[in-house]
Amino acid sequence: MPDPSAKVDGRTLRAERTRESVIDAYTALLLGGNLKPTAQEIAAKANVSQRAVFNNFNDLETLVAAVGARTLAIATKDFERIPVDLPLAERILRFSRRRAKVLESIGPITRAVQLRIPFSADVQKSRARHYDRVRREIRKLFADELAAAVDEKSLTKALLVASSAAAWSSARDDLGLGAEEATEILRRTVTGLIRDSVNPSVSD
């Protein structure tokens, strides 16, 4: 007698494959420069029906959030921990290079997400989780400098702004800077913010 659970498992696997195909298709369209693909375009790219797209995602905003979350996870999964006992200059350099690598790799996705932020709670939550992760990294990596800062909260916010996707996009897209030059500006900005905010004996 056939096992009913096998049918359920098969449907679950097919649904998961369809979901991944839709995410892959949307990601490919974004990376190809189509920042506002339609459901029809996504379905055609994924080789599924439009109904299958909306069976897996309530709306395009939900799909954008899923794509953003997966892209960020892939971009950050292989990063090595930056030792917190390194000299400040080396920590800043490694932090700047790592942020630049992430922001460069998810640039097209970020631009698409920015278009959806005002209209999607899911996208807003995804962005908030990303900022929380970067905030934790900053607090851990620059713990001594933040503790010595005149205004710890203000410095944390400033470092978040300097290393944000918006700042990177401004350098790369608006000003037309190369990735290497934009990374150097990020490094210099982070260095200046920290050294202007803490006791000189700590930042040396």
Any overview of this molecule?
This protein is mostly helical and 204 residues long. It folds into 2 domains: 54 residues, Orthogonal Bundle (Arc Repressor Mutant, subunit A), CATH 1.10.10; 133 residues. The protein is 78% helix and 0% strand. It is built from 12 helices and no strands. Helix 2 crosses helix 3. It starts with a helix and ends with a helix.
Amount of helix: over 70%
The counted number of beta strands is: 0
Question: Taking Cα atoms only, what radius of gyration do you get, to the nearest Å?
Answer: 21 Å
The protein's oligomeric status is: single chain
Structure class: mainly alpha
Runs with pLDDT <50, length 5+? none
- First-residue to last-residue Cα separation: 75 Å
Topology as H/E string? HHHHHHHHHHHH
Strand content: under 5%
Tally of alpha and pi helices:
12
Number of domains: 2
Q: Please, what is the average pLDDT? A: 87
Question: Which geometry do the CA atoms define?
Answer: elongated
Largest sheet: none
Helix and strand arrangement:
Elements: H1 4-31, H2 39-46, H3 50-56, H4 60-76, H5 88-105, H6 107-116, H7 121-141, H8 143-148, H9 152-162, H10 165-174, H11 179-197, H12 200-203
Describe the structure concisely:
The chain has helices at residues 4-31, 39-46, 50-56, 60-76, 88-105, 107-116, 121-141, 143-148, 152-162, 165-174, 179-197, 200-203.
Name some characteristics of this structure:
204 residues, mainly alpha, Arc Repressor Mutant, subunit A, 2 domains, 0% strand
